[in-house]
Amino acid sequence: MVERRRNTRHALWIVLPLLSSLAAADDALFTGEALSADQLQEANGRQGIPFQWQVNDTDQNAIVADNVLNGTVITGDNVISDHAFDNMNGVATVIQNTGNHVVIQDSTQINVLINH
Question: Alpha-carbon distance 48 to 25, whole Å?
Fold first, then answer.
């Protein structure tokens, strides 16, 4: 299954750029000419961009085995206070764990859109 997903991902990385070059528009956005303020405003928010592609794939595996808890086992509370994320900037990741024998897998995907 993992090998099949990997092969599919590689095929997408080959095919999608070829398709995007076939879908290139003939308007001023793609001629290499300087754009006027009005043309830039029309393209705001990716309006007028004819084609874009995006591939995301995350493969995570973990095993918790042969763990033993002895004695009094106490797990804590997870508390996020008021305004905990005030003035936060950028990409934030919050991971909380209240259990024992837990595997935490975190993944961040940052999408970069290349339009041409």
Answer: 9
Question: pLDDT (tens digit, 9 = 90+) per residue, 82-93?
Answer: 888 888 888 777
* Cα distance between residue 51 and residue 24, in whole Å: 7
CA distance 10 to 51: 20
Number of domains in the chain: 1
| Residue 106 resides in a domain | no
Question: What's the chain's Rg over C-alpha atoms?
Answer: 23
Is 81 a domain residue?
Answer: yes
Label residue 41 by pLDDT band (50, 70, 90).
confident
Report the C-alpha gap between 81 and 6 in whole angstroms.
Answer: 41
Query: What is the model's pTM?
Result: 0.33
Rounded Cα distance, 33 and 55, in Å: 30
User: Residue 67's domain spans which residues?
Assistant: 1-95
